[in-house]
Write a structure and sequence with these properties.
Elements: H1 2-20, H2 22-32, H3 36-42, H4 52-65, H5 73-96, H6 102-129, H7 134-140, H8 161-180, H9 191-208, H10 211-228, H11 233-250, H12 257-277, H13 288-296, H14 306-339, H15 343-359, H16 368-397
Helix pairs in contact: 1-2, 1-6, 4-5, 4-14, 5-16, 6-8, 6-9, 8-9, 8-10, 8-15, 10-15, 12-13, 12-14, 14-15, 15-16
Main location: membrane
GO cellular component, one term: membrane
Subcellular location: Membrane
Length: 399
Amino acid sequence: MRKRLVTTSPFLTGLKLLAILPPVGIGWLIYLSRWQWLALLKHPRQFGRHDPLLGFIVLLMGVTTLNLNHRDYRSVALSVLMLFVLGNLWLLCRESTQSIAWHELRKFVIQFGLYIAISGFAFHWLNQVLTLPTWLKFLLGDLLWGYAANQNRLFGSAYNPNDACCLLLIALGLLLTQLSHESVHPFTRWPLANWCFVGLLCVGIYQTKSRTGLMIMIAILMMTAYQLCRHHRLLVTTILITSSLIIWHVFPRSASTVTALQSRLTIWHNSFAVFKQAPFLGVTYFGFARRYLQLTGTYVPHAHDILLMLLASFGILGGVGFIYLVLSSGWHLTKYWHQYRTPNLRYFMMTLPIILAYGLTDFVLSSMQVLIIILLIIACWHHEQQLSTNSLIAATSHR
């Protein structure tokens, strides 16, 4: 027990700092992961088909290194360093799931979402009352990354409203999955409080004013309503149809929807043009913004779509590798659900599609906070697969 506390306490501390003091938490987790690559070299069997995400990261590092032929040394070096840090963080998250229970991690992610919502309202009030120093706002995650027009949107400690929305959606998905099924580890012991937290997360998502996020939130709520009201689905359908008639009137930034869609389509079209400039090796992760600027005269940090960003940054191999990861993960998730139907699988069947759906309209992996949380969830799914496989092997050997 003592060994478990020694190995997990620094990691849990890093996760808490990730929510409250993001730069400190990110730095601490990167520091904890610094020697993970050595541990991998000592146990090379962990690499390969048993860990496709690690193989994908190594593939991206190899593709990026080949870009040295283009003599863009700075972008190549920064991109390789970023992928190296990403690989170490993945190994750290994967190791942490061996000693930290899923319900503990799940509770943390929900608390993280609640903190984003609460801190978003608190920071908005504080900024009207007094002027906080820039260094303090940066430490708290309250220094906006993005356009000045986004300042009236909630983002709490996540720096950006779209990143905050993604984290809020993940927290909402986990909490609703827990409430729609009996759980031995409830978020709180008071059912009414749980539903109040659901309401707070929904208000937070609405206040981020992310149109994609709100649509995903509505889809999640509809799924949960059908699960909880199995015997009254006709009534639920009638209520949902009636409610949909007034949704447009309260939809955030509805006046600029057409303009925003046209802007996003333009970014996607230009990002694909960047990919066509270097279809085999890409332009590297940190080389994307420079190539986009050279092509269009406009600065855009990323492609606002995970597949297009991977294609443009890492070429065909990056895009094909990502598609393989998505399809294989979906196939394994469906397979394990039909075979085992363990309660934890419900959480992954809810959160992984949320992450993918939001990634189709925005590249939220550019946020280290979002990236670490997603790595943690994928690591838990990886651990669940291992447990299910081991239990099947053990059951077969006893026959």
